[in-house]
Amino acid sequence: MDMFGADGGSYTDNLIGTLLAIFGNVLVSVSLCIQKYSHVTLAGTKDPRAFYSAKTWWCGFVLTCLGEGANFVSYAFAPLALIAPLNAVSVLTSFILGFIFLREKSKPSDFAKRYGLSFLGSVLTIGGTYLFVAFGPNSHEKLKAENIVTHLVGWPVLLYLLLEVIMFSLLLYFYNQRSAQYIVVILLLVALLGSVTVITVKAVSGMLVLTTEGSMQLDDPIFSVMFVCMVASVAFQARFLSQACKLYDSSLVASVNYILSTSFAIVAGAVFYLEFNKEDVLHICMFFLGTALCFLGVFLITKNRRRTKTFEPYVTMDMTNGVPTIHDKGLVVQSEFSGSFSYGALVNNDGVAPATLPVGNQEQPSVGSTEASSNLPDLKTD
């Protein structure tokens, strides 16, 4: 009966944590859509107010806080191996909301060609999520301060942290000294920091939940250590992730970062919190199959997004007026506001009339002056 009660309690905690993580990821995606709508509306109406003065932006901000809070609390109830892959729910929700708000009209063949891979990726993501949630680890322990210290001083954790420090130092050396600003290098740095983040977030969240239940854990030194490591890892992780977004396409960064960060988070949970110790081989294989399907689904969803071309101008001379004109063959990220919400639709600019460049004197030179200049004697040059 004790074993049954423990298993039942563990199953209930896992269910609570999984539902909180799904709810939090959905809220974050909805909040980003609302904030995007706020920015587009202010830009389209030429409103001079700052974005933080709009009620819709604050609504999105509140939803973001609620979603991130739900994600934070979910770590206290469910294993890292269940919570980390659920970030795919955020990618899936963003794709669905973006598809709804695009409001584009296209032929069925063009529609299938453009969105076929994305819908296939959505199906794979949903199926993979079901598999890794159904067959994921069902272990859960109360993260008291002494339990965290016991995990921290174990030789597997110390070896894992040593390997992480060596790998992070090598990558940081190549990144700073050799200017190896490849996407894999930057996102590996993000993933290594992310593994530390999820370990510390789970510890801090677990101790906070126990404190609210009446068992004080905040006065233990390990709480302060975990909290400081959590804040520092999040700050540096955001810095490297911002650098990756500046250098590479955001869709590529989203898919590669999800794959690498989830992989390192699963390994961190397996090593630090021993989440797979009591699982059989079948459950482990099905879990990793579901995770692989989620990886493939997220890759297909983000791969099919239309990418932004850089501004590629070419200048021609309008022989009628003698005025240079500039043309753009690229794409713009956000079209001018036309009364409808397009959710950042990418609009081709080929059909736009070329813009004229202002010049000081737009009068055509007279034929006589041209002939006169041609009849001038050659100047002697030294």
TrEMBL record:
MF (Gene Ontology): magnesium ion transmembrane transporter activity
Lineage: superkingdom: Eukaryota
InterPro entries: EmrE-like, Mg_trans_NIPA
GO annotation, cellular component aspect: membrane
Composition skew (Polar residues), residue ranges: 359-376
Region (Disordered): 357-382
Keywords noted in UniProt: Membrane, Transmembrane, Transmembrane helix
TM annotation in the entry: 15-35, 56-77, 83-102, 114-133, 153-175, 182-201, 221-240, 252-275, 281-301
Signal peptide positions (record): none
Cellular location(s): Membrane
Pfam families linked to this entry: Mg_trans_NIPA
Membrane-related topology note: Multi-pass membrane protein
Protease as UniProt keyword: no
Family (UniProt): Belongs to the NIPA family.
Family annotation (PANTHER family): NIPA-LIKE PROTEIN 3, PTHR12570
Protein name: NIPA like domain containing 3
Organism, as annotated: Scophthalmus maximus
Gene this protein is translated from: nipal3
